[in-house]
Write a structure and sequence with these properties.
Strand 9 and strand 10 form a beta hairpin. The protein has a domain of 170 residues: Class I glutamine amidotransferase (GATase) domain (Rossmann fold), CATH 3.40.50.880. The protein is of the alpha/beta class. It has a ten-stranded mixed β-sheet. The radius of gyration is 17 Å and the shape is globular. The termini are far apart.
C-alpha cells in the first residue's frame, strides 16, 4: 500500500447517492446477503438500541470523496456503516457527490460523517460555511482515519476535526489504550486492545483541545511519546468525534471498531 504522500493526487470520483437504513426494499436485503457472502459472513457486531418510541432515527450523510490518496477500505467502510444502520435503527446516505454539502441538503441530516476522505476537496465558500453552521448549530460531525488528511488548506476544518495528519510512522500490530472507559463510544473495550493498523501522528498534539478517548501505547510499536487516536469535542453547540483507525478493510469488519462507530453516531446525533 503506498502512503498518503507517495501517491499522486487523484480527482474525486462522483458516485452519487446510495441510501441505506432500517426501512429498505427487498433489493437492499439481497445486497446485504451478497456482501455477507463476499466478506466471509462478517457481521457488524451486536445490534445496539435504536431510537426510543417517538424519537426520529438519526440521519447520517456519509462522505467518502477523495482528492488525494484513496483507501482500498472505502467499500468495506460503506458496507459496514450500511449494516450498522440496518441493525441500529439509523439511516445513512453514502455519497461522493460534494453538492450534498449545502445548507439545503444538510438540513435533512443529523450527522455528517467524513469517512476516509482525503486531499483538498473542492468545496466553495458557501459549502464550507454550510458545514460549519451545521455543526455549530447543534448537529454532529464524525471523522474516520484520513478525515484528518483532508482540507489541509482550510484551517477551520482542522479546528473542527481536531487535528491535521502529519505522517504514519507505524503500520503494524500495536496496543491501543482506552483513556475514558466510561465514554459511550469505548464501552466494552476494556482498558486496552491490540490491533493491526496504520497509526497516525499529527502536526501537533490535539490533547489540549479535545477529550481523548483512545491513544497508542507507543512502546508497543517501538516508539515513545503521546499519540491520541480517538477523541470527542464540541464545536459551537455541536458534537464532534474522530477515530484515526480504519486504514484496513479488516478494521471496518472488526466488531470492536464497529461498536465504536455505531456508538459515535448515536452520541454525535444526540441519541
Amino acid at each position: 500500500m503506498m502512503c498518503h504522500k507517495c501517491q499522486g493526487a487523484r480527482g474525486a470520483k462522483v458516485l452519487g447517492y446510495v441510501r441505506w437504513g432500517a426501512h429498505n426494499s427487498t433489493m437492499r436485503v439481497a445486497l446485504l446477503l451478497a456482501v455477507g457472502v463476499l466478506t466471509g459472513g462478517c457481521g457488524a457486531g451486536p445490534a445496539q438500541p435504536g431510537p426510543t418510541p417517538g424519537q426520529s432515527p438519526i440521519r447520517v450523510l456519509m462522505v467518502t470523496t477523495t482528492a488525494g490518496f484513496r483507501h482500498d477500505s472505502i467499500p468495506a467502510a460503506r458496507d459496514t456503516v450500511a449494516s450498522l444502520a440496518d441493525q441500529n435503527g439509523f439511516t445513512v446516505t453514502a455519497t461522493e457527490d460534494l453538492s450534498a454539502i449545502s445548507s439545503a441538503t444538510l438540513a435533512g441530516y443529523d450527522v455528517v460523517f467524513f469517512a476516509l476522505t482525503s486531499g483538498e476537496l473542492p468545496l466553495d465558500g458557501n459549502q464550507k460555511a454550510a458545514l460549519l453552521a451545521f455543526v455549530s448549530g447543534g448537529k454532529g460531525f464524525i471523522g474516520a482515519h484520513s478525515a484528518t488528511d483532508t482540507l489541509h488548506d482550510w484551517p477551520e476544518y482542522g479546528r473542527l476535526v481536531g487535528a491535521s495528519f502529519k505522517e504514519h510512522p507505524w503500520t503494524r500490530s500495536g496496543t491501543v489504550v482506552v483513556e475514558d472507559p466510561a465514554h459511550v463510544t469505548v464501552a466494552g473495550l476494556g482498558d486496552r486492545f491490540d490491533i493491526v493498523e496504520e497509526f497516525y501522528a499529527f502536526t501537533d498534539n490535539p490533547r489540549p483541545r479535545v477529550h481523548v478517548l483512545l491513544r497508542l501505547d507507543a512502546a508497543s510499536v517501538g516508539g515513545s511519546g503521546d499519540y491520541p487516536l480517538a477523541w470527542s469535542s464540541s464545536y459551537g453547540s455541536g458534537r464532534v468525534y474522530y477515530n484515526a483507525l480504519g486504514h484496513f478493510a479488516e478494521t471496518w469488519r472488526d466488531p470492536r471498531f464497529q461498536r465504536q462507530i455505531a456508538a459515535a453516531i448515536r452520541w454525535a446525533g444526540n441519541h
